[in-house]
Amino acid sequence: MRFETSTIKDIAKALGLSTSTVSRALRDRYEISEETKKLVLAYAEKVNYRANPIARSLKERRSYSIGIIVSEIANNFFSQVINGIESIAYDKDYHVIISQSHESFEQEKLNVDHLASRSIDGLLIALSSETQNIDYLRDLYAKGLPIVFFDRVPENFETHKVIANNFKGSFDATEHLILSGKRTIAHLTNSENLSITRERLKGYQAALAKYHIDFNPDLVKYCQHGGMHSEELETAVKELLPLKPDGIFIASDRLTTGCIMALKNTNPEFAHKIAIAGFTNSNLVELFSPSLTSVRQPAFEMGQVATELLISMIEAKRPVVDFETRILDTELIKIQKAASNKFL
């Protein structure tokens, strides 16, 4: 038996109204009286009316869907960004389609091409660690696809961007280690291609300079896949140990949690002696051992702001020519735990 749904025409016939009046009432248009709106909405709820998204898309030439590209959904930071995106998108009747690049440029491009072929109305994207050439995004943008970048953003691309205050976050974390008495501070970071890598390295260097500590490039280790490969992390840690760092500043969520495990696997005794500060949005920071001073990013807010900016582009009546880069503040969270804590 075929499931039949009520239509606008059915509601109009039952209430003795025109289909245009019912349509406007359902969309809360100003020209329809409050009394008529209440009447229509009450009847629509009674018959369990649901708008036909296909008909709406054909009529308005929009899919009411937004594409999202992140490196990994399981990453604490990105999962919180996605929650922020959904909180705005669903409230404005947009659906979201999420894809993962797994830090691969080829996967990123395949995902974007697929989303574009599905007629998404706009794209929210954090670039993969391998991405250097974004001509394919420029082509889609030139053809009219609204794009907003967040977290990992390109240079020389005129659109909205939403980022954390990476310089200040890394400066604060490194300064905290210095004020704790550390002088040989290593830096574990992401691919050199990424904007967050460059910005956080500058913050680290600025903190060292403020306290007259020489910058040693040998203490900086790049992980091209952002900690997604445990071997990559363990290699970086093994290369740092002979330099005898007494502190380490780590530049991203997965790297921070992964480094703690790599330290324990490589040199468990040393792991509980070194001071660690790093970017992470994990809700279990207080359970980490060794203890961790964390830089927390406003991930949920970042997702909300990026989505609001994208929808403003999608719904603009004229081409958008004025763009902004929103910079959101980070928070330094200092947590002290006894060395006997055996969690993580």
From TrEMBL:
HTH lacI-type domain mapped to chain residues: 6-60
MF (Gene Ontology): DNA-binding transcription factor activity; transcription cis-regulatory region binding
A UniProt-annotated Pfam family: LacI
Organism: Pedobacter rhizosphaerae
Keyword presence, Transcription: yes
InterPro entries, alphabetized: Cro/C1-type_HTH, HTH_LacI, Lambda_DNA-bd_dom_sf, Peripla_BP/Lac1_sug-bd_dom, Peripla_BP_I
Keyword DNA-binding attached: yes
The protein's name in its UniProt record: Transcriptional regulator, LacI family
